[in-house]
Amino acid sequence: xxxxxxxxxxxxxxxxxxxxxxxxxxxxxxxxxxxxxxxxxxxxxxxxxxxxxxxxxxxxxxxxxxxxxxxxxxxxxxxxxxxxxxxxxxxxxxxxxxxxxxxxxxxxxxxxxxxxxxxxxxxxxxxxxxxxxxxxxxxxxxxxxxxxxxxxxxxxxxxxxxxxxxxxxxxxxxxxxxxxxxxxxxxxxxxxxxxxxxxxxxxxxxxxxxxxxxxxxxxxxxxxxxxxxxxxxxxxxxxxxxxxxxxxxxxxxxxxxxxxxxxxxxxxxxxxxxxxxxxxxxxxxxxxxxxxxxxxxxxxxxxxxxxxxxxxxxxxxxxxxxxxxxxxxxxxxxxxxxxxxxxxxxxxxx
Length: 350
Hints:
Layout: E1 2-6, H1 16-30, E2 34-38, E3 45-48, E4 51-57, H2 61-71, E5 75-78, H3 83-95, E6 100-102, H4 107-112, H5 119-131, E7 135-138, H6 141-149, E8 155-157, E9 181-185, H7 194-198, E10 205-209, H8 215-221, E11 226-229, H9 233-241, E12 245-248, H10 257-264, E13 269-271, H11 277-280, E14 287-289, H12 293-300, H13 305-313, H14 317-335
Parallel strand pairs: 1-2, 1-5, 5-6, 6-7, 7-8, 9-10, 9-12, 10-11, 12-13, 13-14
Antiparallel strand pairs: 3-4
């Protein structure tokens, strides 16, 4: 089976969506499924005002149609609700083609944290976008229940995995900092709620891995925090494995893949009891969830690192890929019913 995935998030961005899609493609390939991507590569781009280091693609419909038709996919998946996602959404709707979507980012909360746009309006737009999909994939039961309450339809589960070969305890390096080391990793931006972590009175050291628009401000306000900047691959794994506790202060993430990556390194998680941490950690003895984040951080120091590693070993990307492929197989079956062909040469001549 051949699947086309449309995504506005792609390399060189470093985030959970990019890591998820990259891991999905590798695992799907081993299962005999080819995944091709439509990404910002090759399209004109414009800067994102609140993220100067990011740029949004400006996709032309003719080229989008040509890219899809060249691949002749059995199924189409839209991973993001950005310009590329909307372009492929429009392509499929015009031709009556079934497709699936993912709900991976809380855009209403992210937007309202920056500009005075009501969350209700943003959710209405997203609800309409996903309503046309044969299925909308979500990563956790909590998020599925929340979106149901917001009147989203056709929701299905697509869980996440972790690369336990890349993220493992043996990669730990000596950061040369007083212990215990409390570390967080991800985009340094207001929606990640890093201030809730950095303002805590904790022993030892606080470390932030990642970059983003809020980094200069946080460096000024919290000079005793160590900022390691952007790290990827083995360098990221080495820094995470060096920590005594992984702190996940975000209250808006739909999953938080970095939690699984920390656990694979044998590092327990401290977080608020919200969607994402509540689903990843739940009642497993691999972290501490509390409205008192300081108490969660201190409690995490007493969690078994061996238990964290064992928990992560049961969360493979292969299982995640099988779940995704199952959803796409059902879409492919719908596509084989009497409908317009994907290879519509006329589309590129409009």
